[in-house]
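Consider the following assembly input.
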Amino acid sequence: MNQNNYVVIMAGGIGSRFWPFSRVKHPKQFHDVLGQGRTMLQQTSLRFEGVCPNENIFVVTNKDYVGLVKEQLPFLYDDQILSEPIGRNTAPCVAYAAYKIRQKNPHAIIIVAPSDHVIFYEDQFREQIRIALDEAGRDNIMITMGIKPSSPDTGYGYIQYHEDHNSKIQKVKTFTEKPVFELAQKFIESGDFVWNAGIFIFGVQTIISAFEQFLPEVAETFEESKSMLWTSEENNFIQRAYSQCKNISIDYGIMEKASNVFVLLSDFGWSDLGTWKSLYDILPKNSNGNVVQGNVLTYNTTNCIIKTSGDKMVVINGLDNFIVAEHDNVIMICRKDEEQKVKDFVADVKNKDSRFI
Amino acid sequence: MNQNNYVVIMAGGIGSRFWPFSRVKHPKQFHDVLGQGRTMLQQTSLRFEGVCPNENIFVVTNKDYVGLVKEQLPFLYDDQILSEPIGRNTAPCVAYAAYKIRQKNPHAIIIVAPSDHVIFYEDQFREQIRIALDEAGRDNIMITMGIKPSSPDTGYGYIQYHEDHNSKIQKVKTFTEKPVFELAQKFIESGDFVWNAGIFIFGVQTIISAFEQFLPEVAETFEESKSMLWTSEENNFIQRAYSQCKNISIDYGIMEKASNVFVLLSDFGWSDLGTWKSLYDILPKNSNGNVVQGNVLTYNTTNCIIKTSGDKMVVINGLDNFIVAEHDNVIMICRKDEEQKVKDFVADVKNKDSRFI
């Protein structure tokens, strides 16, 4: 196992499209969404077993979730949990981790991975991660994992690439975040687009150079960090740094602008599990087309996803194509094809009674 | 206030058509179903204020609900709560109360009333109850309250009567329990049918004579009770008596057979509140035709009844004509026009996990 391999798990999101299951106090990544006996964060960490040593795993999360991370990954030392005072999207998060890791190991190759995605074929995933680590270790490049799209989903980012059969990785041409449906259809037809899985691999010096070039204000902020990271000053420094950083994604801030970005065409049964419908799509259905988790009786009910906690009983008669979700004193009943409204529900509930968000 | 006036409130039912709100451990009559600040039992008791003295109120209930009755009607002495070891329908319940009351007051006029019905116009109700008490005090007759039917409801019993404009009460011709729809329609068209409100008024000697004539085995059983009622032997006696009594309603066992039954045509805003739809029908609706009780947000949702406890949040998008009921760890979602299935749900849930019934 290469001691230069590092993983940065991003675990600060709220996952509000998965409300009411994903909640401000206990977001999706801290749940065992698939019922596999492990939370999504635990599964994500486990996925890198054999890829990088446990002491090279870093988790970036909101300060409010540090306790949950410690509880779920008890092998982490406090220094491996990077506490964000506020959410500032992925660019400041990656910067924080990169500057911190560089100080310890300037030869680090970093995998940045979300904590709340599903990967079904872990062996293939590890195989492809190793290819990416090799390539990123050899050259001053940034690699992203691209998933062959199965539908013109408008919830994903798309990556267009220059095909090169002689290379393991393909040069990226364009990034397009969440296209409209017609555009997504054209992307699929053209054949040279893949979904952006949000997993990045780069040398620590490469990503810091990219910050210096494309997000110089972020780089300047973190340049001052040297004397404070890994000391008792770190928290105070980060508090100040985050208040100066703008809210920007690593995709938009760097990947879309840099010319040294490559995509590794991947196939490891991936889902970002972004929405209720995506959970419905990946889980096994019964003969009525229902996905059922919990104590549930259905009558004349088809094509639904019904998820409830074990101490509740749910009885449904006469629903087709609905999400029925019960969690922590909230019940949501929503047409499955209108699941994009969930974020509106969350906004409205927040106004009414913030205990329920 | 006539000291001979007595009321017997029947509070032993389970109200399973109102599941999951009405539960084996806490049936409908012990809930504040309408949100009026009083349970249905309390409201029923209050309804007889000024009609009969508090010490003449008797409540017959299952032994498991004695605690709930004491809690909700703290003015009752233990002797006023008649504890049934098992439910045996209304005939044994009325016999128990009648024999017990006769021993104290052989001139008693008894009103028998369910504990879980709604009466909107309490003043009219009291006025009509007084007429019935007068008539039943004068003659050896049994009186039932008849409600002008507003629809061919197949969930009610129907009473046909001989019209007599010179009398305050009308002689009963036939009783028909829960007719099929076509028959119910004919009843309505004919104009000489009313709904049986299940409220009876009779002298204690009159009802005991009726038992002797039409249910002699019940009369014989209770004839032996004299030395035991109002003593410490009462409970043991009742235990034995109920094990000997068959399960039979006062309607079927006596009223349908006796020739001295009269109906008082009544109009006091009555509902037996037997089902979710009946609750929907009587409660005020918002501009989308929804009846909403609890913390609820609706989107594109119409003609529903949504009832949940205060500490829960319910969000619904895209339902029309449904019952959504949440209570004590159970959630039921059912098409409103298929509410008759609720009893099937209860049977199925009982097989699965009896905590939830």
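Chain B has eleven helices and 17 strands. Ask yourself how this observation constrains the way the partners meet.
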